[in-house]
Structures are given as C-alpha cells and as structure tokens.
Amino acid sequence: MMKDPLSYAMRNVPRYTSYPTAPHFHDGVTAGVYADWLKALSPQDSLSLYLHVPYCRELCHYCGCHTKATRQDAPLKAYAATLGQEINLVAGHMPNAGPVRHIHWGGGTPSLLPRQSLIDLTGLMRVNFNLAPDLEHAIELDPRLVTEQLAETLAIIGVNRASLGVQDFDPDVQKAIGRLQPYRVVKQAVEFLTAAGVTALNFDLMYGLPGQSPETILDTVEKTLSLAPGRIALFGYAHVPWMRKHQRLIDESTLPNAAERLALADLARAELLEAGYVAIGLDHFARPDDSMAIALSDGSLKRNFQGYTTDQGEQLVGFGVSSIGRLSAGYVQNMSDVGNWRRAIMASELPVSKGLALSADDRLRARIIEELMTNYACDLVPACRAFGLPTSHLNDAFDALQDLAADGLVLLEVDNETARVEVTETGRPYVRLAAAAFDAYLAASQASGKARHSAAV
Question: Which end of the chain is more exposed for a tag (fewer CB within 10 A), N or C?
Fold first, then answer.
C-alpha cells in the first residue's frame, strides 16, 4: 500500500533543469577557465544560444526569475548595447564551434528591448555564428505587451516560437499575484502573433497560486484550450520568499494547502489529457503533432534551464546578466549585477561569476536524471559503461530508491547483469523524487541549509 501521497508530494527537491544544480556552482570557474572551454569547441559541437534580459515593466508577485522593474527605455537600450558587445566577445573565443540549432530569449521580458535592438542583436548572432537552416528561434513574452508591431518585428528577426506567460485567467487570482491580464488580452496577443506568422505557441500555466480553486483552474484550462497552443507548461508555484522578497506580497494564508495543491494539479492534468494533449515529463503537455510530442516518441526529448525542450544544441552558451551556460566541460554562470557585468565586458573580459567543472560522476548522474525526467526510465548498465564506472558506483542511489520501490512508484531491477530503474505510471507525478535518489549533492546541501527547494508536486 502506497503511503499518503502528500508525504511524497511535499518533499522538497530540485526541479532538475540541470545537474549538478546551481547552488553548487563556485568561483573556481573563472573567466580564464571559461575561455579555455570555449576555445576547445569544435565544428562538430552544435550550439544553443540563450539571451537573458533582466527587465520587466513591473514585478509580478509570484515571479522567481532574476529580473527588475523599469519604466524607462534608457536602461533597456544600454543593456542591449552591452549584450551586443558580449556576443562579439564570446564569439571571439570560439572560432571553431559548430552551427546554432536553437536561440532562446528569456527574462524578464526580453521583448521590452527596442525594436532596433532586437534587429541588431539578431544580426550580430548571424554575423558571429552559423545559424542552422532548421533553427528554432524562441522568445518569452508578456501577453499584455504584445502589439501588432512587436509581432511583426519578431517575425522579421526570425522568431518562430513564442511562449506566453498566462499563469491563470481568474481575475481574483490575477489580482492576488499582481498580474491583471484579461482573456481578451491574451487572445489578441495570439491573434497578432499568428497573423505575423509566429504560429508555434506555448502557454505557461501555474497551479498552487493564491485563491485558486478547482473551478478557477478548470476555467483557466478551458480558456487555454480555446486558444489551442501547441504546448502547455503546467508549473507548480514555488513559494520561496526567502529567495524572492517580492513573493512576500502574497498572503500565505490564501495559498492552497498540500492536498488542495495536489488536487489542482491532477484536475488540470486530466483536462489537458482529455483534450488530446500528450503528457511530456513532469509538467509539460503538447499536441500530438507538435515537435515536442514527436521528440518524446523518438527519444530525443531534452531538459535544460528552460524545462523540457526539443533543443538539440550540444553546447549551451549564455549571454546577459545571470545567464547560465553548459558546455561539455561544465557549467558557467554570468555575474548577476548589471554594473559588474557591463564593466567586465567593457574591459574585454568574459563576465563569469561562477560555475562547475563536471566530473565523470557528475556526467553519469546528469545523464540518468535527464533520462528519468524525460523518459521515466534509464538502463544503468550502458550509462555507467559510457563513463567507465561500475553499476555498484550507484549503490547509494539504489538504497535511496527502496522506499519509492516499496510503494510502487519506481521499478528497480539490479542483479549481476542488469541495472535498470523505471518510474511507474503511479510514480510519474513524483519523478523528481526518483531523480533526487541519484543526486550526490542533495543530502549534504539540505543538511547544511545551502540549498532550499520547492515541493516535489
């Protein structure tokens, strides 16, 4: 008999958009180290470029992103100019890299950059890098700021996928999270984008928000379905006021409790599946003809800092304040302060703050965690063999999986010739717990208080 589901749902574990996770980065990865990593890239190393824009017109109460509010255009223009210098600087350190398969603008609200800045920055990427013909060029958007002119600009620079931050359509919930956004506004944004030719659309929704109820979340899903996005991300709200002080504006007494939160997730999930969407990993859904559903089917689905993705770029290069890149050698993160980031670039120095060089153990566990998070299963024998390690190297993980296996959440088969772990249908909502069993850093970081994480569901 399975334990109370809430005992699993409320355990605090990472989201595993990377492994090792960002709290374990350190200042031993310097600008010089990063320069060596970039120089080592070869024409066989395809690229994914991420551009972070840390500005919004106003901060939503729920936001967990690295961003700040500005009503002025001057900081945006200055930021774009420095971002262009960083593109030139980084490209100069990697003359032999392969084609760019994916570009992603994140934030913040990257579309706040002036029209000419968006055009100029895209031009710089075209000059400095070899953009693949089948490039996916994506951007995150605030629907309230999508105009006809913006949609046309995005089409001009080659954007072919847009992600709209919807979260919830209920006006009372919107008021509680500081994001008033009527349905008609989102509908108009969709119409502007599709008319301009940007037809691959993602919607971001959230459960666990203040004031949400079964009725409000079902209404949100119904309205979302009426706009027919190709992909839907259904994230659990992470209430981390110790990290994001503006989340203190949310009245904690209005947040759904653990049982209510789990019920909201189950309701929304059931409605999306009933509507014909395919469940993608932990929290994404896609229409059967969407490239993400196809990637799930053919085993090419990936997971990175944007969540589940079809991005096949082998090396992720980050630009902008606090952006994170992942190269074969390890992770690297930029400075989080705009002033220091700008001063480093003006001095022709890579604006590196910290990072982490990957060991064979890190790479093995990262592969296993990604396979669990994307395909719910991993054959551990070839995984260990790829990194020259015996399956006994994972005995700590096998021990950690015992409770999940006893409760039917995972199937674990380990003998002299076989080592395989599979998350069961019942266990899929708790897949982060299965992934956490392979996290060699987690126990120590939790004991030391170095890292605090959100609930598993």
Answer: N
User: Strand order of the sheet with strand 419-423?
Assistant: 377-379, 419-423, 410-414
pTM of the model: 0.93
Number of C-alpha atoms within 13 angstroms, CB side, residue 338? 15
**Cβ-based neighbours of 6, under 8 Å, separated by 6 or more:** 258, 259, 262
Phi, psi values for residue 6, rounded to 5°? -65, -30
3-state secondary structure of 233: strand
Contact of 128 with 84, CB cutoff 8 Å: no
What is the three-class DSSP state of 299? Answer: coil
pLDDT in tens, 269-304: 999 999 999 999 989 999 999 999 999 999 999 999
Number of Cβ within a 10 Å radius of residue 347: 8
Is 79:338 a contact under the CB 8 Å cutoff? Answer: yes
Instruction: Say which DSSP state 65 is in.
Output: S
Closest by Cα among 272, 254, 171 to 208: 254
- pLDDT digit string (tens) for 343-370? 999 999 999 999 999 999 999 999 999 9
SS3 14: coil
Residues 130/98, Cβ–Cβ less than 8 Å? yes
Q: What is the pLDDT of residues 223-253, one digit of tens each?
A: 999 999 999 999 998 887 777 777 888 888 8
